[in-house]
Amino acid sequence: MEKVRKKYDDFLKLLHDAKDLNVPKAYIDLLKLAGKVRRPFHSQAVALVSLCRTLVTEWQLDKNRTPENLVLLEGALNATLKGLEEAVATATELKIYNLDDLEYHPAFQTLEKARAHIKTCHDKLFELAKWNQWEVFITDAIKKDMERMSQLNKILEKRPSPTTQNQIELTVFVFEPTSLGNVYQTTFPVDGSTRLSAVRWTVAGALDESLRKRARQRGEFVLPPDDTPCDLHETISQFAGSNRRCTLRLII
Questions:
Q1: Quick one: how far is CA 57 from the chain centroid?
Q2: Average pLDDT in the 201-226 region?
Q3: Residues spanned by the domain of 245
């Protein structure tokens, strides 16, 4: 009898805790951020936020409003927020994107991780699986982004070259731990406001296929001669000298 009473008391406590649960703050943050995402991630970001809104609505039903489900919801919302933040930080200006390699872009991969978290939460909250419909919804959004970015690429290709006032001559040496010396070297002009994450994606595109994916996913920049680690969110201008030149090493 004592065991039965304890289980009943635990059940009442669970109900009480569930009533006190609130929608995670990340939900409000990602709603504010969705409109700031530019191509080539805009439609995909809007689609993921729409699905997050559906998850929140479903979680607020009494049958789903549990601490366990809240953990899954928070995972989906936080992962989506991180994806949106990466997309906003990456697409700060209109520029040409290599659409054939877009799936390897850091922002695309972060959004892909968000989709996985959303699916996990969906599978727990919905008795009747809707994921096939949701997947089509996301795929159509990505297709829309690609089509729109393809049009923008054509327009940008005809755009006059930018002024050289803010350009920096960047040299990158790519090193692979199992090789002696650098495996690739390139020098090219880049706008000073360009983030290192974008530089990594560009440089990796010129590598052999066997190294390209690893470079885009795990490549880390260091500043010679002391090999000081560099944050991917930093811009090239932070490392350039007074001569408007910069040399970095990309360790893959």
A1: 24
A2: 84
A3: 167-251
